[in-house]
Amino acid sequence: MSPMPGNARVYVIDDDPAMRDSLDFLLGTAGFAVMLFDSASQFLQALPELGFGCVLTDVRMPGTDGIELLRQMRSAASRLPTIVMTGHGDIPLAVEAMKLGAADFVEKPFEDERLIGMIGSILRQAVESDRTSREQTALVSRIASLSPRERQVLDGLVAGLSNKMIAQEYDISPRTVEVYRANLMTKMQASNISELVKLAIRSGVLDT
Fold this sequence. Notes:
The chain has 2 domains: about 10-135, Rossmann fold, CATH 3.40.50; about 145-205, Winged helix-like DNA-binding domain superfamily/Winged helix DNA-binding domain (Arc Repressor Mutant, subunit A, Orthogonal Bundle). Helix content is about 55%, strand content about 10%. It is built from 9 helices and 5 strands, in the order βαβαβαβαβααααα. The chain has helices spanning about 15-30, 40-45, 65-75, 90-100, 110-145, 150-160, 165-170, 175-185, 195-205, and strands spanning about 10-15, 35, 55-60, 80-85, 105. Helix 5 (about 110-145) crosses helix 9, helix 6 (about 150-160) packs across helix 8 and helix 7 crosses helix 8 (about 175-185). The chain is elongated. The protein starts with 8 loop residues before the first strand and ends in a 5-residue tail after the last helix. The model has no long low-confidence stretch (mean pLDDT about 90). Pfam families: GerE (PF00196), Response_reg (PF00072).
């Protein structure tokens, strides 16, 4: 299995030119698209324009270090997963980095295959998380498009009520409930009542 979902990039941040070159070669050979930065400040300037990818940063750098980088990425609401490279004995810094949102950390010197596997795994998790987030947003949007009466009928269906019971609850005819059910199926993009109820529950905006 390829370690790279799509054509995601790895953004390498390290003030050591030799380390940058080494990582550029290693990750490029593994199939990743790599962008190099010699400082956290240079990366932060480019951050608003950067596409999906994974950040690989040293923790100890002059100026803005890896910890401050994570703080500023959090302030900017960046969703790029970040791996922090630490030196021997930097476990306290690694723990602090994790508390600030780092996806993982790796100690130098590291095994090439372990780093490649870690980046691939984190990128796949980020892709899945983003897909789930977009699906959830779409579901909530569909719920928001429902009329008050359609929402009532949906609430009834989620509660396990029959058409007749829903009709009695809201003083409408069973035939009218069927019409609203049909509208619900269309708006919620559900192919059957079971899928409709599952989507409604998964949206998280209805009581289960």
